[in-house]
Amino acid sequence: MLIWLVELSDELQFFNLFRYITFRTGAALFTSALIVFLFGPRMIDSLRVRQGKGQPIRADGPQTHFKKAGTPTMGGLMILAGIVGGSLLWADLSNVYVVATLLVTLGFGAIGFYDDYLKVTKQSDKGFSGKARLGIEFLVAGVAVFFMMRMAMHAQTSNPGLATSIAFPFVKEYVLNVGIFFILFGGFVIVAAGNAVNLTDGLDGLAIVPVMIAAASFGVIAYLAGNAVFANYLQINFVPGTGELAVILGAVIGAGLGFLWFNAPPAAIFMGDTGSLALGGLIGSVAVATKHEIVMAIIGGLFVMETLSVIIQVGFFKLTGKRVFLMAPIHHHFEKLGWTESQVVIRFWIIAVGLAMLGLSTLKLR
Fold first, then answer.
1. What does pTM read for this prediction?
2. What's the domain count of the chain?
3. 70 with 267: CB under 8 angstroms?
């Protein structure tokens, strides 16, 4: 919104700052953090009053979790307020990638909100129907991918086929053009990312810090992929317009920092599906827009590990009637082994940092 102030730069040189993505990214980070810090306490108090018993605790979970009973959920509303506020102020809202990413973020946030609402009102860990939820997620993601494809086709005059292609890390120019099926692929990536972050959100601070790490990593990727000079130097695919996504990712980091202030152990509020689905969908959308879907699996490797642990646990149990892990997702397995919650969280943060660095290294390994 404030990008229009660039027009005043002829009269006052200061307004030329609004032209730069780096400046607006930093401003979005600060703005979103400020929004969460200022309005977070009121929102927590309101949710605590409205929810009464708070988020239901899984009966088969670690015993240490029962002391968290009564903690309100839907803290994702705080995060979304920060992201949307920071993005509306500092991002270029005429950019299709920005609009599509915000569409996924708010759409997935609404799905998660309804799921949280059902859990709180029914006082059960069973919320929205899984099939119905996935169907709506795919619909939202598919619409966003369609508009991203159209944007890329119009912007990529020299290589319009890139819009419907899957790019691969470690190789310079090879892409796989899948045509209209890219909508299915891109939709799958976004939905998978949303649900992977959702599965990871099980301990205080466990999901939000890896999300911020992924956001910082993709902020760098979006900026580089959207800059012709840097993209050519690194020999990655140049996708005009994606640099603007760095502003949204800056808002994610700021909102995440604000939320972590209240979510640090012992958490005053839980993110809930409202936040985890929205954040995962956002990261997935940026990965699709920048043509770094496969790299996302490296940078977000922690989320992949959590998801695989659930798939393996369920699949193996159906085949043999036995369990591979003491409990899934895998962070609960380590709790059952005797790790404290803080040990699990901090060690998983370390893994997330390492995987992010590995993912970023693919930008130069061509």
1. 0.93
2. 1
3. no
